[in-house]
Design brief:
tRNA-splicing ligase RtcB; globular; 7-stranded mixed sheet; alpha+beta; about 475 residues; single chain; 8-stranded mixed sheet
Amino acid sequence: MDISDFEQLTPFEWRIPATGAMRVPVVIFADEALLRAMDDKVREQAANVATLPGIMDACYAMPDAHWGYGFPIGGVAAFDPEEGGVVSAGGVGFDISCGVRCLHTGVQTEAVKAIQERLANRLYHRIPAGVGSTGELRLLPQAMEAMLAGGARWAVGLGYGEVADLERIEEGGQMQGAEPARVSLHAKQRQQDEMGTLGSGNHYLEVQRVAEIYDEGIARVFGLTQDEVVVSIHCGSRGLGHQIGTEFLREMAVSAATHQIVLPDRELACAPIESEVGRHYLGAMRAAINCALANRQILTHLVREVFADVLPEARLSLLYDVSHNTCRVEKHQAGGRGRTVYVHRKGATRAFGPGHPDIPAALRDAGQPVFIGGSMGTSSYVLAGTERGMSLAYGSACHGAGRAMSRHEATRRWRGRDVVADLAAQGILIRSPSLRGVAEEAPGAYKDVGAVVDAADQAGLARKVAKLVPLICVKG
């Protein structure tokens, strides 16, 4: 990316002033090397977002930002309905409420290494993964409606997990304002056999060891200790969320002219928050959030079953569950005063600072846990939201390393079989139904996650707490 037009505000914060149709500036959080390595489409897409009605303060991009559909992935933007603000399906993304859940195990690395092969095989055979994967649970219409309204609470009510889990899930496990009636029959049909599945792409289930602690105090609050084993689950709303995104993007594009919205890019299709299309999308999107929360809850139950059989001394308690493809109604200082705004986070994680009432009481003094996923052979990270981050980008942080090349290019460079063998030599066992999928997700296809996390930490978006290194990865 050509950075000559950027104003450098700090070593990790860069600004493009509002020009032309832009209503607000663009702010990108990154060090100079990460910024230069970003695709020019990040700048173009962020500038386009800055033209949308009712946007507040700036369009923000995280250190892992890369090209996406309409909005850049790693993009954050807040809209005020009192200022004619809009909601955009492209600003949430197709995999609505894709997120990460992290579980303690209470066991040390050596205990897992002793049964690593067996545990990897059992997890792979128990956790459905890959394109078109289906689970054991088939939802009939009445159960589908209940799941879309109830989220993880619905799943716990059926025996998938524990009531104590709900306190450690964003929204308490159930997104309010969901309207299952706004979800099409086609979307529901796509989801009826997909509950409790990982899906494909960059989704995964990883068994990881805590390799390094950066902040002892926060790690203690989070319950993380050196060399402990944790389990991370990364997935979302599967076919249902994708179908909702597809349908409402089309509907928003058609209705834009009715609301006198000029779209610099059709992929930025949006609708006024207070319009019928806007309200219907929000109801459907919230139902998809509940789908994702229920999905991760069922997967947690399956993981617990495997551990109970293979490593019965393990106790899988939930650290936290947070999404990174959402639009949430939040109160922030925006436009110079306190406002209720609709914060779009696409490939960006909510990262509320210490004391925020939405953080579970046991974690509140430390700030909200933030999970930054790696890519099979690379590290993942646990961070904590900061007070400063609340004023930088509405309490948001990055969500992963961010792709450095397309999936097509990755398959030209790597063979899945070789990736599996190379990682096995490093002590990381990969289990996947698709060797092509493994090649697409090769560690080298992604940016340096350590550099991304360091930039988020030094920019003040979130504080580094711990580094996690994979032992087992079940990949879609």
